[in-house]
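Good morning C.,

I know you're traveling, so I'll keep this short. The sequence:
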Amino acid sequence: MGCSAKKRNTELIGVMNIRAMTKKDIPAIRALTKEISEHEKFEGFDVPESYFEENFLGDNRYNDIYVIEIDKKVIGMGHTVKMPSTYIGSHEIFLRDFVITKNHRGKGYGRAFIKFLCQLAKDTDCKKVHWTVFDWNEEALNLYSKVSDVSNDIAHCCIDEENIEKIINT
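The C-alpha cells, ready to paste straight into the viewer:
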C-alpha cells in the first residue's frame, strides 16, 4: 500500500511516498533504527542486517516496516504490529518504532505517516491504532497532540531483560 503527496511550504519540496519495506531498504532501516536507539539512550546497538530480513521479510514475520521516502530517498520508517483484540473482536495496529531523520522533522512527514496508518487500519478493518512515547520526548508528544485527541489513559508497562531475570528467579 503506497501513499503519495506533494509537500508544500517546506524546505524540502518533493514527492513523498510511504510503502512497505523491501530488502534494498535494510541498510537505511538499520541506520534509522540506530538513530532510534541513540535517541532513547540505549547503549550497545548491534542489530545485524540479517535480523531485519528474517523478521520483517521472512515467512515467520508478524509485523511490518513501512518506509517514508522523499524523492526515492528513505527519510523515515515505522515498525507496526497488527494484533487481535479480545475485547473489541477485531485487530488493532501498534506502532512499535517510528523515526524520521533529524533534518526532516517538523515538516509534516510524521503527520502524513499517522494519516497513512489510519488509512491502513481502515483498509484492514483494524479498530484502533496504538503507540507509546517516552514522556520526555516533547517533539513526539507535540506531533501526536496535533494529530488527534490522543488518549493517554493507558499506562504502558515494560519489563526489561535484567528485570525479566529478577522476576523469574524470585
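Safe travels,
E.
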